Task: structure prediction
Amino acid sequence: MKKKEHLYSLAIGYFLIFVLLTVGSGVALFLVENGFTPKAKSFETIMELLSPHLLGMSIVLFVVTHFLLFSKKYTQKFSLKVFLWVVLFMMFDQSSYLFILMGLEWFSVVKLVSIVFYIIGICGLLIMVFG
Result:
């Protein structure tokens, strides 16, 4: 393995560890604070949560999909489909707060499932590029 490829692998490994630790702590905090029947919060509180989360998740997706753009292993059509699925899971994850606020408490399960699939999608994108 060339030195340059080794450095990319090292950076991606640290990135994956960071993302997995962030998701693990986020899921743990969500379950500890809310459980599977979260309490309705105010709209202002929900917006305070959504803003940084949406920004952070979008940045992670932006970085990972840029790696995919430079890869020649997959067609652009396939790459776009994978990207759109990951964006869809991200939007389900973030919008579920609003549905929980409206009283649809079962959306907490949708939130947890969508964040898991978002992370699987991000890891899948990285594997597609560097695997």
About this structure: The chain has a mean pLDDT of 77.
